[in-house]
Amino acid sequence: MLMPYILTVLMTNRCTAKCAHCCMNSGPDRSERLDFPVIRKTIDELNDISPLLTVVFAGGEPTLVKDALRQSIRHCSEIGISTRLVTNASWAKTPSTARRVLKRLKADGLRELNISTDDYHLPFIPFENVVNAWSAAKEMVFDSVVIANSVGPSSQITPECIKKRIGERVPLRFDEDGIEHVAPAADADGTYYAISNSQLQRLERGAATLSDSDFHLMSDISRLNAPCPYAIRNAALSARGSLLACCGFELDGNEVLDFGDVRTTNAARLIEKANNDVIINAIAYFGPLFLMKIVKKVAPDVSFSKKFGSVCEICRSVVKNPDAILALREHVSAFGPVVIRRRMKVAKHNQEAA
Ligand code: SF4
Ligand code: SF4
User: Fold this and answer.
1) CB 99 within 8 A of CB 134
2) Over the stretch 59-68, which tens digit does the pLDDT of each residue have?
3) Which ligand is nearest to the CA of 317?
4) 30, 153, 228, 232: least buried by Cβ within 10 Å?
5) Measured in angstroms, how far is the CA atom of residue 53 from the centroid of ligand 2?
6) Using a 6 Å cutoff on CB, does residue 315 contact ligand 2?
């Protein structure tokens, strides 16, 4: 079975910003939020069936749900699960505020800090906040402190610009082909510092409000023909209480990637149910492009964009298209056996390697 080893808890859809590219459609106008008991229940139920390595707290802006965030970090710390906070640093208005907030979270047990910034954050959060949060974090020895930065063809806030503005030669997490550097070196203080450099993705609000020229899109999408390593294994808990396949984009209510409500069903049972779904297995073992090709073959009337920039963009174009999903469900016998064979082969290989 595919088991989650990372769980992203989407604490709230509410955010201090309303970035034009937000793949979670977050903003000050959203109000969904999680309470600690629901978070604890989900973490414990998943951790019981297979140990979680890391729980990532994200959103929206997770620090807006302060008490539940701190209780959840403390709970993870008590049961030996590492924690990461993904934040836009809107709270780091001054060096002393940044220090105060991070000190508290560090005392709660927070191990990793991710600070997001790019062109679309800047109208809402000054870059100075990022500098304040970064500098404060460097006084406290986290396991990792990462600045997450997405760029498009005409972005101003690039990794080079970030390095200049914080005045440090911070290493990049990915190479030019998007491959993660192997065995990243920790700094002298034991912390892994990096800029997580990625391409801007045309997802959700970005797909609705930005134009194609804002993204690096390609018409030869053969490079995107890859299995998804995140589906189920990097599951997410939505602010509405749904267990999701991943935190790729806002997935609540999606027929394939929303596994159900953790408030009414044991999270382990939802994972088991997801593992029985051929489409989610196809995403995990072959990738979304495999599914898109099947839809094009069996239902040529279903149309797709001609250009994509990422595997998740292809995934979204399939799983959010009811006609595509209907065609896949109707023709499951055409690709189901090959997916199950691949799953068995991978399981055998993993068993032998263990
Ligand atoms: S991208 Fe991040 S900071 Fe911007 S609206 Fe979305 S959740 Fe908030
Ligand atoms: S490819 Fe699909 S399942 Fe995988 S991370 Fe992206 S959106 Fe999630």
Assistant:
1) no
2) 999 999 999 9
3) 2
4) 153
5) 20
6) yes
Q: Is the model's pLDDT at 274 over the cut of 90? A: yes
CB contact at 8 A, 149 and 197: yes
DSSP letter for each residue of 234-249: EEEE-TTSEEES-SSS
Third-level CATH fold of 6-217: TIM Barrel (3.20.20)
- Listed in sequence order, the DSSP H helices in 210-319 are 267-275, 278-285, 288-298, 311-319
CA gap 227, 174 in Å, rounded: 19
Q: How far is the CA of 122 from the centre of ligand 1 (A)?
A: 11
pTM, whole model, 2 decimals?
A: 0.96
Q: Which ligand is nearest to the CA of 250?
A: 2
Residue nearest to atom 4 of ligand 1 (CA): 19
Distance 201 CA to ligand 1 centre (A): 13
Of the ligands numbered here, which is closest to the C-alpha atom of 58? 1
Indicate whether residue 60 lines ligand 1 (CB < 6 A): yes
Q: Is 142 a residue whose pLDDT tops 70?
A: yes
Question: To test ligand 1's pocket by mutation, which of 116, 122, 129 has the most ligand atoms within 8 angstroms of CB?
Answer: 116
- Cβ–ligand 1 distance for 19 under 6 Å, the answer yes
112 CA to centre of ligand 2 in angstroms: 23
The stretch 17-28 carries a mean pLDDT of: 98
pLDDT score of 184: 64
Query: Does the structure show a pLDDT above 70 at 183?
Result: no
pLDDT of 186 over the 90 cut: no
Using DSSP's 3-state secondary structure scheme, residue 192 falls into strand
Residue 155 pLDDT > 80, yes or no?
yes
CB-side exposure of 32: number of CA atoms within 13 Å?
17
> What are the domain boundaries of the chain?
6-217, 286-353
pLDDT for 189 beyond 90: no
Is the CB of residue 148 below 6 angstroms from any atom belonging to ligand 2?
A: no
